[in-house]
Amino acid sequence: MISVLVANERASIREAFAAALDLQEDLSVVATAASGREAVNLAWLHQPDTALVGVEMPDNAGFVAIKQMRAAVPRCRPIAMARTDQPCYLRQAYEHGALAYLTADMPLADVVHALKSVHTGRHLIDRDQAYAHGQSPLSPRELEVLRAVARLGTTAEIAKTLHLCQGTVNNHISSILAKLGAVNRAQAVVIARENAWL
Questions:
Q1: Would you say residue 166 lies in a domain?
Q2: Based on the domain organization, do 57 and 103 belong to the same domain?
Q3: Mean pLDDT of the residues in the chain
C-alpha cells in the first residue's frame, strides 16, 4: 500500500483527488493539507510515501513545501501539480526537488501511474525537460522587475517594493519590452512565463 498526502489550497481539487486516490486499491490517502506549512507538518507526522502538492499556493508555498519535505521526510517522494501547464512551474518543480510534474486536468490513471512510478524511485522530470526553453535574455535585475510587474502592476508599487525610483523602473521595463519583443507589460509577463523565465 502506497501512502499519499494531498496538498492543495483549493478545497475542491484537494478533496476530489483525495477521494479518487483513496478508492485505488493500492493507494491510501493518509492526510490532506490546505497550505504548504500544513503539508510539511503532516508529512512529518504521517511519513507518507508520496505527496501530491499544488504549486499555485501564495508565495510559492507549494514549491517551498516540496523542498522542505525532501529535507525533513526523505522517504516522501513529492509530485508537483498545477491547474494548468506552465513551463516555469516545470522548472521550479525540478529545482525544488519534485520527482514529477502533473496538471490537475490529467486523467486519474496518469496521476496514479505517476504516484506509483515515483514511489519506486523513478524521476519523471529531468534537467533537459526543466530547462528546455533556454536561458532568459533578461538580466537578474530585469527579471526581478518583471516578477514585480506580474505581482504588483503599477510603477509606483514596483519602485517602492524594490527600493528604486520610478524612472529606473520605467527604464528597466522599456529594456524588458525591447528584449522580449513585447508591446506591453502584460505581454512581457506572458512571454516570460511561457519560456519558464518567471
A1: yes
A2: yes
A3: 90
